[in-house]
Design a protein that fits this description.
The protein is 49% helix and 11% strand. The protein has 16 helices and eight strands. It has an eight-stranded parallel barrel, surrounded by seven helices. The longest helix has 18 residues. The protein is elongated.
Length: 354
């Protein structure tokens, strides 16, 4: 009897586990039977990232901000989707990352979480949401997970207060990705978007800061806009993955912004904020512009919509009744125009004219 009860409980447990949404913060079943191998439908976990890192397999990261981009990132099998505060510039049109609020970031996070079912999801803590105190930092990080649907957070910088914030967030049970080198939230101090690590003191600071973030418990560190030898040194010194962006090929992985790598926008503002290090794998923006111009032209020439894009019909009997009702309402011109439109659609529809 006891064994049959155990089997029934086990079956119920299996049913429960298989219906859960696979996220990195769902513990693996290490009690009964050990961890299961990851499949393509499950959320990438920190465990998988560590395994890739130990094997020397590059980690792929793409920054996305909405549901459509998240679906594409998911379909491509990207390891990590970062919901970056760069949405301030790319999506909202600001010149810096500073204006975006936590509430705005949470909107982006939720949209991405609905679209990306497989990648590990990392949400940026925007400027002004973690600098004041460790309590503020933890509270903001909790919101990113609970309200934004993220698996982890990212924070910038390596000042003592930022290191303390990272440590406090990790101790609160939240995975943290660090970010050193060019930290866009610090442009007031840096004097603009300037590469870092280009002299001895700055290069040493990049490595030391990355090591301090590792010591604080970060699972990974982004290295932005630093010379390749500096990135290589930091990667060698750390025991956690480094994710490069404008830092050369010697990092544990790479990250680019969705809009940038697709070449989505040719607007002067976007051209101004698109970094030099970004490779454009497509010219999607040109395709978009061409399609919009064709749409405008076809609407202007009354060639869209044609019969193939006008699918909804009204029967002849109902049309006659409708015209009669219009005439009763004193809308003779409307009735005449409706009748004329029906004749025109019928004559232009190759199926109807056969």
């Amino acid at each position: 009897m006891a064994s049959s009860l155990i089997r029934r409980c086990s079956r119920r447990a299996v049913r429960t586990i298989t219906t859960d949404r696979f996220m990195s913060n769902v513990p693996e079943n290490t009690v009964y039977g050990g961890p299961k191998p990851q499949n393509s439908n499950q959320r990438v976990t920190l465990t998988q990232l560590r395994q890739k890192y130990r094997k020397g397999e590059p980690i792929t990261v793409v920054t996305g901000y909405d549901y459509p981009s998240a679906v594409h990132i998911d379909t491509a099998g990207i390891d990590v989707c970062l919901v970056g505060d760069s949405a301030s510039m790319v999506v909202h049109g600001y010149d810096t990352t500073l204006p975006i609020s936590l509430d705005e970031m949470l909107v982006h996070c939720r949209a991405v979480a609905r679209g990306a079912k497989r990648p590990l999801l990392v949400g940026d803590l925007p400027f002004g949401t973690y600098e004041s105190s460790t309590n503020q930092a933890v509270d903001s990080a909790v919101r990113v997970l609970k309200e934004g649907g993220m698996d982890a957070i990212k924070l910038e910088g390596g000042s003592p207060s930022r290191i303390t914030a990272a440590k406090s967030i990790v101790e609160a049970g939240i995975a943290v990705m660090g970010h050193v080198g060019l930290t866009p939230q610090a442009i007031s101090v840096l004097g603009g978007f300037r590469p870092q690590g280009r002299n001895i003191a700055s290069a040493v600071k990049v490595v030391e800061t990355a090591m301090a973030l590792q010591e604080a418990g970060c699972f990974s560190v982004v290295l932005e806009c630093v010379p390749p030898p500096v990135a290589a040194a930091a990667t060698s010194a750390l025991h956690i993955p480094t994710i490069g962006i404008g830092a050369g090929p010697f990092c544990s992985g790479q990250v680019l912004v969705y809009h940038d790598l697709l070449g989505m926008m040719q607007h002067p503002h976007h051209a101004k904020v698109t970094p030099k290090f970004c490779k454009q794998y497509a010219q999607v923006g040109e395709v978009i512009n061409k399609a919009l111009l064709e749409y405008k032209e076809e609407v202007t020439k009354h060639s869209f919509p044609g019969p193939s894009h006008t699918p909804y019909k009204i029967s002849s009997n109902d049309l006659d009744g409708f015209l009669t009702e219009l005439q009763k309402m004193g809308l003779d011109k409307a009735a005449s125009d409706a009748a004329a439109s029906a004749e025109k659609m019928e004559s232009s529809d190759p199926v109807s004219s056969q």
